[in-house]
Write a structure and sequence with these properties.
This is Putative PaaD protein. The protein is α+β, with helices and mostly antiparallel strands. It has helices at 3-9, 24-31, 43-46, 77-85, 111-116; strands spanning 49-54, 59-64, 93-98. The protein has a three-stranded mixed beta sheet with strand order 1-2-3.
C-alpha cells in the first residue's frame, strides 16, 4: 500500500476547521445569522456548515451542505453565507462551497437546534 493511500483511507469526511484562527469565532457568529428558510434554526446550529477554513491571508473557505439536494434555496444559500461573512473586519475574501458528502443528517444538529425544534 502506498503512503498516499494510507493517508486517504483514514481521512475524515469533513475537513477540520481553523478553530485556532483569531477570526474563527467571528466567522461562526456570522454563519449563525443565516437561517434555513424552512427551519427556524440557523445553519451553523443545524450542522450545515462542515468546515470553516481560514488561511494566513485571512481568506475564508466555508464548506457547507444543505438539508436536502432539492432544497429550494440551494442556489442562494452559499451567497447568503458569503454576504454574512465578507463584511467582517479582517476578512480578505470568502469562498463558500457546497458539498453533499457526507450527506446531512439530523444527528449533525447542535443540542440547541434539537431543543428549538422539539427533538429533545
Amino acid at each position: 500500500m502506498t503512503e498516499q493511500n494510507t493517508q486517504m483511507e483514514g481521512a475524515p469526511l469533513i475537513a477540520p476547521s481553523s478553530t485556532d484562527h483569531p477570526l474563527y469565532d467571528t466567522v461562526v457568529e456570522a454563519c449563525r445569522t443565516v437561517y434555513d428558510p424552512e427551519i427556524p434554526v440557523n445553519i451553523y446550529d443545524l450542522g450545515l456548515v462542515y468546515t470553516v477554513e481560514i488561511n494566513d491571508q485571512n481568506e475564508v473557505n466555508i464548506i457547507m451542505t444543505l438539508t436536502a439536494p432539492g432544497c429550494p434555496v440551494a442556489g442562494e444559500m452559499p451567497g447568503w453565507v458569503a454576504e454574512a461573512v465578507e463584511p467582517l473586519p479582517g476578512v480578505k475574501q470568502v469562498d463558500v462551497d457546497l458539498t453533499w458528502e457526507p450527506p446531512w443528517g439530523m444527528e449533525m444538529m447542535s443540542d440547541e437546534a434539537r431543543l428549538e425544534l422539539g427533538f429533545m
